[in-house]
C-alpha cells in the first residue's frame, strides 16, 4: 500500500476521538447432536463456500492422545458435521499443531507439519472440501526440517503456503519457506534477518499490504510479545511492535479482521497463566487496543483454533485448554462496533475503505466517503496500471457510498484471478487500495 494511503489513515486517526463500544461474547456450542471430542492445538480454517469452520487434528490431552479427524462447524446453523473420510486413500497421521490453510483456488485445506508422541512431521496434504477426501503432495525442493508450532498463512497472489520457524527436539528455527501447490515445490526464502528463533507463535495474512503478520510465541527465554510483518513481495521482515502491547504469550489464536483491517488475538499462555482477553492491532495506525466486551466470555485458555467470520462480523474460536480440554465454540460478535466522533478536520477527508470480502469470488463491496458534492469516480486497474473497469464517474453527494465489483471488465468479460487496484478520485484527491480476485 502506498505511503499516501497510510498517511491519510494516520491523519484521520489523529484528528478523531474514538470510543470502543463493547463487543459481545456468545457461546455457540450446540446443545445436542454429535460434536468433535474436546481438544487443543487443532487447526481451523474458514470454508467460505460452505460457510463453515473446518477443524483438523489436535490433542485431547498431550502428545500421546492426538487426533486426525476432520469436522465442519456450520456458521448458519451452529451445528457440527463429521467430515472425516470413512474409507479410501491414506490420511495424514494423527497430530497436534498442524499448519492448515484454506486454498480458494482448489477449494481445499492444505496441511503440513505437526507433532505426535516421539514424532515430528514435514509432510504436505490436501483435504478436498467438496469430496471430503485426502491426498498427499510429493513436493520437490527442500523440504523444511520436520517440526511443529510454526507460524503460517496462505499467499493467494503466489498461491503459496508460507511458513516461519517452529521447533523439534533439535531446537528452534528462524527460517521462512514457501510451498506452491501447483508446482508441488518447497522454496527456502529465509531473509537472514528477522524475528529470530521461536515456536508456538501465531500468524495471519494481510491482503491489503500483501504480507504475513506474526505475533508472539516462545524461545529459550520464555513467552514473546513482539509483532512482525513479512512482506510477501520481497520476503523481508519489518518489526511492528508498538507500546502498549498484549502480554507476551504463546498458543494464541490470531485472525485477520477484513472489515476493519486489523489483526485480532484471543487467548494464549504466558508467565502469569492463561488469557481470555481480545486484542486488536490496527494495521493502518499501528496500534494495539484491548477490546471491551459484554456477555460471559470463555474462561482463560490456550490452544484454541480461530477464524474470522466476515459475513457476521465476528471471530469464532474452538476448543483450547483452561486446565480442562474443551470442545466449546465461542463467538465475539460486533467487531466493527465503534463510535467515532470526528472533528471538522476529519469530516473533510476523502475516505476509501477496505473492500469486503477480500480475497473475493465472485463479487466484493467497496465502501467510501466523499467530503463534498461534486464529480467522483471509482475505477479498477490491474497491477500493471491498465484500466479494467469504471464503476462510476458522475456527480455525487457528500457522505458515504458503496459500489460492487463482479470481477468483470467494461466489456462484461470476466477477468483473471490476481491482484487489482481500486482508485477513488474526488475533489482533486485520490485514494487507492488493493484487492485479490480468486477463481
Question: What best-fitting shape do the alpha-carbon axes yield?
Answer: globular
Broad CATH class of the largest domain: Mainly Beta
CATH architecture of the largest domain: 6 Propeller
* Spatial order of strands in the largest sheet: 25-2-28-27-26
Category by helix and strand content: mainly beta
CATH superfamily of the largest domain: Kelch-type beta propeller
Work out the number of β strands: 36
When the domains are counted, the total is 2
How many separate helices?
A: 2
How large, in whole angstroms, is the Cα Rg? 22 Å
The amount of helix comes to under 10%
The rounded distance between the terminal residues' Cα atoms is 23 Å
Q: What is the averaged pLDDT score?
A: 89
Per CATH, what is the topology of the largest domain?
Answer: Neuraminidase
- Quaternary structure annotation: single chain
Sequence stretches where pLDDT stays below 50 over 5 or more residues: 1-20, 339-347
Walk me through what this model shows.
- With 439 residues, this protein is mostly beta strands.
- It folds into 2 domains: 322 residues, Kelch-type beta propeller (Neuraminidase, 6 Propeller); 88 residues, Immunoglobulin-like (Sandwich).
- It contains 2 helices and 36 strands.
- The chain is globular.
Short recap of the structure:
The protein is mostly beta strands. The chain has two helices and 36 strands.
